[in-house]
Amino acid sequence: MPNHENRSKRSGSFVLLNGAPKRAAGAVWLVGAGPGDPELLTIKALKVLQAAEVVVHDGLVSDEILDLAPASARRISVAKRKSRHSYSQDEINRMLVAFALDGLKVVRLKGGDPFIFGRGGEELEACREARVECQVVPGVTAALAAGAGAGAPLTHRGSAQAVTFVTGHAAKGGEPDLDWESLAKPNLTVVIYMGVSMAGPIAARLLGAGRAGSTPALIVENASRADERRVLTTLAGLPQAAESVSGPALLIVGEAMALAHAGQAPPQVEAVLRKVRA
């Protein structure tokens, strides 16, 4: 009797099963696009992007970086802004899985690093649950670019023995639930992502937990981009300084921020700077 067992063989990106062509399984790459400057894109990220068939990207990824993908690649913006969400996170997860199961090479292109407040972990979990291959390509997170551009080290032997990254918003909006007493310790750099609109409550919490109002604070808007802007202030002056910021920005609080190149520093910051240099 003839053997009816299914036999398969690979032909390029397709699988021939009993003579019927079926596309081989695709994959998802979670790629960090960095803070905005195309030259801060890693070589690996560039190679993966140049091989993409679908690019699902954040709204803040620059056109210069998107143009590095093949002209034939489908581009889908899943921009998340404070008052507008084009796709929910669940919809993005399902989209990535669906494209990969259709045999496509999918690049999920994220500003900064996928695993630093980028929801990359959720997308990785969704791919694993669907048994879709998923690889992660790290990127330069905005805090590194902001500190480097301003000449303000996030760690410094004399004034910042540790650095902590926190989010400025709770998962469902509002004030984040953080260990404010730990964050109020001196000689600690606190980097606050997505915290401009919460600058007032955040500063109040840190002050209430004992952090000195004279602690230098730096706001960096559009880090690494041509229109980058820096505002050097103090923790006490942070809420007022944040009112002048309209674009995506980081808040960085800590003694080492006195070293930032951001124009003339407030007198309180100059006093801290003298101590750092001593």
UniProtKB/TrEMBL annotation:
Span of domain Tetrapyrrole methylase: 28-238
GO molecular function: uroporphyrin-III C-methyltransferase activity
Top-level taxon of origin: Bacteria
EC assignment: 2.1.1.107
Family: Belongs to the precorrin methyltransferase family.
Pathway given in the UniProt record: Porphyrin-containing compound metabolism; siroheme biosynthesis; precorrin-2 from uroporphyrinogen III: step 1/1
Pfam family, one: TP_methylase
Gene Ontology annotations of biological process type: methylation; siroheme biosynthetic process
Keywords: Methyltransferase, Porphyrin biosynthesis, S-adenosyl-L-methionine, Transferase
Protein name as it appears in the record: uroporphyrinogen-III C-methyltransferase
Keyword set includes S-adenosyl-L-methionine: yes
Gene: cobA
Keyword GTP-binding part of the UniProt annotation: no
Root EC class: transferase
Organism: Phenylobacterium deserti
